[in-house]
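A-type ATP synthase subunit C (Natrinema longum), 350 aa
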Amino acid sequence: MSTGASNPEYVNARVRSRRAAMLSDEDYRKLIRMGPSEIARFMEETEYEREINELGTRFSGVDLIEYALNRNLAKHFDDLLEWSEGKLYDRIVRYLRKFDVWNLKTIIRGIYTDTDPEEIRTDLIRAGELDDGTIDRLVEVDSIEDVIELLDGTIFAEHLEVAFEEYEESGALVPLENALDRAFYENLLADLGRPQEGPEAKYVEFLEAEIDFRNARNALRLARSGSDLDPAAYYIEGGVLFDESDLNRLVGDYDALVDHIAENKRYGDRLSGALDRLRDADSLIQFEHALDAALLEYADLLSSVYPTSISPVLSFVLGKEREVENIRAIARGREVGLDETEIEEELVIL
């Protein structure tokens, strides 16, 4: 645990200048009309210039774009940690473990599908707590059991060991992926309590929202899948929207599940448009993107209300994630020949 005073005013001033340099929705619409080489040239005229130039001798096309995006993301979040002190540093370290979760899910999926290690590396974002040596060893192992063994001593090991039994029975990755999410959120909420006011209360409120949206996503996926999986096994504690009995009751009734989200006072108005679209949707992708956009709006709101809290940092992290995911989706979509409308459906646009 880091000691000493926090320095949110300094960090948030730096974050605001970085946020101002991020791409706009109009930029995404320009990129949709470009091929991968044009996208790379566009990025060279933005704050991705250094990464594109440094990596351009080794990679090209979508690989160049993806490596540049991931390196840039890691650079920004390394900077966050370098600027931060005290409790703020500890909060940011904990939150950035979400990229450990991303990397571990990517590695486990890669092993499951027998993907070449180099392809797995393309998707890794080295911005979490696991060091490069550990990540490189994880990419090279042959089995999911080996992954769990290498993670001994981390916050993920115990959850993965329990989930591994269910994975062996079902052959599905969902128990392992959900175990990673649970470990992450339990660690985030540890020792926070439930403050009723002030910046710390808004931080907890944001984490509750992120957990609620994760549970909503999991519940809606289960409802749409029609599977007989136990909903309680995919429940993450810490939110305010569901308890386990809610999930068990609602997961078999898709319309009732959507109504439950809509009736919640905290989120109903904010998600009303997304919920309307969900009722008519053929897939969950648009609603999942709407959840992502709503969470980003929520963080933006909190950062304006509490500018000297961690909220502006969380808003920046989510915004930067959104930028990277949008550019990646555009580049991959263009590579496989999707039309502009199909690509735009893959984007989170506010």
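The radius of gyration is 20 Å. The chain has a mean pLDDT of 89. ok done for today
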